[in-house]
Design a protein that fits this description.
Rossmann fold, 224 residues, 42% helix, two-stranded parallel sheet, 2 domains, N-(1-d-carboxylethyl)-l-norvaline Dehydrogenase, domain 2
């Protein structure tokens, strides 16, 4: 049984699901948010592992506040590839990346029953700690570098964005030809090679806080 204390910083969709999920496994967890209506404690308490679940633009500030503490810092926030490595070099500390793959409306279920767990480990020692934390989850654990972990998250969201946009284009073309787009989509997605994700959302632009932002990251990788 993992008996270390866990701190969750940032209690939005990701942070709240992470906090609640770990508690369901009996872990000792506290949650902090700068929003007084969300937070469970008035200040950052001590922990063996700190999960940062804030918006990306707040990650560096939180890392700076934690840099003198003993616990392992783990970023759950989506960050552009190379960010975690840069933060490690800037602050001279160990930082891991543990991306989330949660849908906003099903965040807790997705946390409890993941299809994979990605650990972007700064070193073997801290990767082992995170692997131990997730040993009760019935999902494959993928251990890579933080930059690969960041890339896995960005590519995932970029692909989801692309599928939604593609099916929107199908809708536009079908309607221009007087063809019912859903009939086309239903037939096309019978092919096991073709995902139906986005085929029933036609007419809706990719939304949420992540997909448009991460697709923009994807488009800019290698060109900045």
């Amino acid at each position: 049984m993992f008996d270390e204390k866990i701190g969750i910083i940032g209690l939005g969709v990701v942070g709240r699901a992470t906090l609640t999920g770990f508690r369901c496994f009996g872990y000792d967890v506290w949650g902090y948010d700068k929003n007084s209506s969300k937070t469970e404690c008035d200040e950052l308490e001590e922990a063996d592992i700190y999960f940062i679940c804030t918006p990306e633009q707040e990650v560096e500030k939180v890392v700076s506040e934690l840099q003198t503490r003993e616990g392992l810092i783990v970023v759950r926030s989506t960050t552009p590839p190379g960010t975690i490595t840069e933060l490690q070099q800037k602050f001279g500390i160990h930082i891991c990346h543990n991306p989330e793959f949660l849908r906003e409306r099903n965040a807790l279920d997705d946390f409890m029953f993941p299809n994979k767990i990605v650990i972007g480990e700064c070193c073997r020692k801290h990767g082992d700690i995170l692997a131990s934390l997730y040993e009760h989850f019935n999902a494959p654990i993928i251990r890579v570098t933080p930059t690969i972990s960041e890339m896995i998250k960005i590519v995932t969201n970029a692909w989801l964005y692309t599928q939604i946009e593609f099916w929107n284009e199908v809708k536009e073309k079908c309607e221009a030809l007087g063809i019912p787009p859903q009939v086309v989509a239903n037939a096309v997605t019978m092919d096991p090679r073709i995902s139906n994700y986005g085929s029933k959302m036609t007419g809706n632009k990719p939304g949420g806080k992540c997909l448009p932002k991460d697709f923009k990251y994807w488009k800019n990788i290698g060109f900045t």
